[in-house]
Every structure is written in structure tokens, then in C-alpha cells.
Amino acid sequence: MTVVLSPFQQHRIKIAEMQQKPQSVVDSKDSLHVVIPELERDIEYLRTFGNDMAERNKYKLEVVLPKWLPKSEQYLQEGQIYPNPIFVWCIVWLFDTGQLDQGLDWAEIAIEQNQDTPKGWGMKLPGFVARTVFDWVETTAANGHSIEPYFSRVFELIKTKWRIYESDKAEWYKFAGLYLLRDENGAPKATAIDNIEVLNQAKELLTQAQNIYAKVGVKTMIGNIEQRINALSK
What we know:
The structure is a single chain. The chain is mostly helical. It is 68% helix and 0% strand. It is built from ten helices and no strands. It has helices at residues 7-19, 28-46, 53-78, 85-96, 100-112, 125-142, 150-160, 166-179, 196-212, 219-233. This is Terminase.
């Protein structure tokens, strides 16, 4: 049986291997305070783009990330764990620029390390990642494109590891249930499904959503599914 390791577990193995070899890596923990003002200046400059998200994200992709990614990579190579805002901001910018693979790999590591989000944010890192990926999933599904592997990857983490707001968690279960009921136009309809097993799976997901957060708005669809199951069972 093949054991699938999380990015955090893979990272720990790499660090253990590196520590067995002689090397000289600069300890950036001691020098972190020196570069933080520069990081803050870059963050402040990004605000000058205002609502022009395309130009802002282009600047992140072409200027900011190439500048700060090496420092985050060095932090990961050190094998030490300490609060690192550079690492966290790189994760945020990776998601902003659509680099979901690396963003999720690093986010899993940062969450395992209990890295905190920037001051003034109203949510922890798991909540930020869950909401960001959910927005991507909704948009991608609406455009008729595949939402995998990102949907299943994050949904599994939400179900088993991450603690996020109940309303946000319920939305993930709701989406998963409705996604099973899509008709040829992508609209969720119980009458579009002839498979009772799929209908029961959707009902279970929507029921879990309602149990997590009663105001999630799935009661009518659950009733529609039950009616469809009864009709197919006759």
C-alpha cells in the first residue's frame, strides 16, 4: 500500500536528510527584523494600485514574488519553525496570482507550523485558504472547467484537519452536494439525476451542511432530492 505524505511531512523528511549533510545556511531568524521594513514597504506599495487587481497581481508575479520567494525557500531549508511573515505573504501572493499548487503546498506547511495571518485580518490561515480556493472553485465550475484536484484536496483538509468558520465549512459541503446534481447546463437539479446512489450522496452532503450551519439554505433541495428518490423507487 502506497502511503501519501502531506507537503508538511515531505518537508520534514527533506529537512532530516539535509541535517545529515554538512552545509552552511544563513539563519534568517536573527536577520528577519532587518528585512521586515522592506517587506512592509512592498505591501504598502501594492496598495497604490487601488482596485486595479490585474496590474497589482502582475506586479506581484513579476516583481514581488521573485524578490521574496527565495527568502521563504531559505526559511524552509533551515528546518527551524518560527513566526515568518515573509513566508505567509508569499503564500497569499501565490494564491493571488493563481499558483494554486505551490500555494497549497506551502499553506499546508504554514498551517502545520501555526503561522499567523497578518495583523488586522479577521481570519486564520486555514480560513483564508479555504475561502480563496472556494472562490476559485465557484468561478471555475461556473465556467465549465474542472475543479480538481484543488476542490477535493482542500475539502478533505476541511473535513479532517482545518478549523474554519462554520458558515464557510457548510458552504463547502453545500457546494459538494449541489455539484453532484448538475444538469447539462451546470445547474443543480434533483430531477437531472437518475442514479439513486448519487442522490443519496448529495442528500448526505447537504444534510451535513445544514447540521453545521442551519442557515446555509439547503432545506428545499433536500426535499427535492427525497421526492426524486421516491419517484425513482416506484
